[in-house]
Design a protein that fits this description.
32% of the residues lie in helices and 25% in strands. It contains 18 helices and 27 strands.
Length: 525
């Protein structure tokens, strides 16, 4: 099964149904298919063939959705680019992926101009939107490109299940970015699994808020299309715009990362909006504090599902959907499971193992690393056999995430391996400390890291952002933590910042914090 099959199925059943709402434009599934087929035809006309790479640098839009399907039509590989990367970082990815065509929004003209100075050779830039597109590269307007092309679908047999569909580059938090390979089989298997788990159908309306260059949202491109549901895009994360669009377009379901949900629930007048159309909201991409989960459920008054996954797995591995037996528990007992990382999704085999390979006991105490296998797991990293071999051993992908498992089989992540703090021989999991900090009434955002200490090896440091109009002292926050967790886990120091650094997808950028507070080996020497 391949991605072109998904669009073909949607057009067969839902040709005249509204498919996409994007910046004032509305397209039926027949409209969407015609535009996809025309863009695919244009890409063929400029020399793109099966296995070639096309990059896209774009805000959330109908063009992004069209690019996902048009490249798949001809067996090409789509490489979504993080819009917050510097031209130098973009150049590295373009060189590594071998992309020769770039679909770009004119709002990123300045970055594209600099690429030519960094020895990047592009056959064609396909511009969308308004603005100055003068660059050293051959260029064409997006609408002009598809206007003169033929709206004819490619034969489904031309694309193999094992063909590479997408190339997502990791954020580079542990060195050079690596290209994560996802095949048509990976993407389609994941889409079907989410359809079943989330009960997606043609009455749903998904709002694309998290960036489409990131799998926190991109997976929904395929699952939502497959069932003939409706796509709504917002170009930027602007809380009032998001809330207004959710209300006006009657969104039923979406997924956002915790920092986005945190900003939404703390937006002025959030309670004045009508969210009655929502049936469920999902959070994923980073750990989330239970206190924030409560606020989300209270604000949006709908069901909540916690998700966990990785770029390498399309992304979902677990969902906090309750098993039938757990639905008979009290609301508070149900919440205990809803706020967890979750149980394995359909099609996923998951274990939590100790360093010796032994599975941890399902007692919610023993900590181990999550390892997974299944048809949603990447075959490896682009042109990186050593990194692939290090990550996938015996058919199991080693995630680098540390977790516990309870007797019901629900997993709960305690930390990333690289973020765990060892102080005086004791392990401190940054997520546990952050959850306590988020429950403090004055704290809006928090991150916890380990910093070097001559006595304890490492000590716990917290960096926090206070809510507008709220005050708190370092001593008060430290004492608050000591009242809720063991004293050795409490931060030894607190720094107050106006905002925490974020990655392109909106996650808190811990590597950036560590670089600020932890001297590099060169500096220490």
């Amino acid at each position: 099964m391949n991605i072109p099959f998904i669009l073909e199925k949607a057009v067969t059943l839902y040709a005249q149904k509204q498919a996409v709402v994007s910046e004032g434009k509305r397209f039926t599934y027949a409209d969407l298919a015609r535009r996809v087929y025309k863009l695919a035809d244009f890409l063929r006309s400029v020399g793109i063939r099966r296995g070639d790479c096309v990059a896209i640098l774009h805000e959330n839009s109908h063009q992004f959705l069209e690019a996902y399907f048009s490249t798949a039509q001809i067996g090409a590989i789509l490489n979504p680019l993080n819009t917050r990367l510097s031209p130098k970082e973009l150049a590295f990815i373009l060189k590594d992926s071998g992309a020769t065509i770039l679909i770009a929004s004119r709002r990123f003209t300045s970055s594209v101009k600099i690429l030519s100075q960094l020895e990047i050779e592009l056959k064609q830039v396909i511009w969308s939107g308004d603005g100055d597109e003068t660059t050293p590269f051959s260029a064409v307007d997006y609408e002009d490109a598809i206007r003169g092309s033929t709206p004819k679908p490619a034969p489904l047999s031309e694309v193999s299940d094992d063909d590479v569909a997408h190339l997502y580059y990791t954020s580079g938090t542990t060195g050079e970015p690596k290209g994560v390979v996802l095949t048509h089989k990976n993407v389609c298997t994941h889409a079907l699994a989410t359809i079943g788990e989330l009960r997606l159908n043609d009455t749903d309306t998904w709002i694309h808020v998290a960036p489409l260059f990131h799998l926190a949202d991109a997976w929904a491109t395929f699952a939502i299309t497959w069932v003939g549901a409706r796509h709504i895009t917002v170009p930027d994360f602007d809380p009032p715009l998001v809330l207004e669009t959710m209300e006006n377009e009657r969104a039923t379901i979406t997924n956002m990362i915790p920092t986005m949900w945190n900003m939404l629930v703390n937006t002025a007048a959030v309670n004045s909006y009508d969210f009655s159309s929502l049936r469920v909201v999902l959070s994923g991409g980073a750990p989330i504090a239970p206190d924030l989960v409560r606020k989300i459920m209270r604000t949006f008054k709908c069901d909540y599902i916690q998700t966990y996954g990785m770029t390498e797995t399309c992304p979902y591995l677990t969902l906090s959907i309750l098993k039938e037996g757990l639905t008979r528990l009290s609301p508070e007992e149900q919440f205990f499971y809803k706020a967890k990382t979750g149980r394995p999704m359909i099609g996923v085999l998951l274990k939590v193992v100790k360093d010796n390979g032994e599975e941890v006991k399902p007692n919610n105490k023993e900590v181990g690393e999550i390892i997974v296998k299944g048809d949603i797991v990447t075959p490896g990293y682009w042109k990186r056999p050593k990194e692939t071999a290090a990550a996938i051993k015996g058919g199991w992908l080693y995630t680098g995430d540390l977790a516990v498992v309870d007797r019901e089989g629900y997993v709960n992540i305690v930390d990333r391996k690289k973020d765990m703090i060892v102080t005086g021989g004791e392990n401190v999991y940054s997520t546990e400390v952050e959850n306590v900090l988020y429950s403090h009434p004055a704290i809006l955002e928090a991150a916890v890291i380990g910093v070097p200490d001559p006595t304890w090896g490492e000590v716990v440091k917290a960096v926090v952002v206070l809510r507008e109009g709220k005050e708190a002292t370092e001593e008060e926050i430290v004492n608050y933590c000591k009242a809720h967790i063991a004293r050795y886990k409490a931060p030894k120091s607190i720094d107050f910042l106006p905002g925490l650094p974020k990655t392109g997808s909106g996650k808190i950028y811990k590597k950036g914090l560590k670089e600020k507070y932890i001297p590099s080996p060169q500096k220490m020497g």
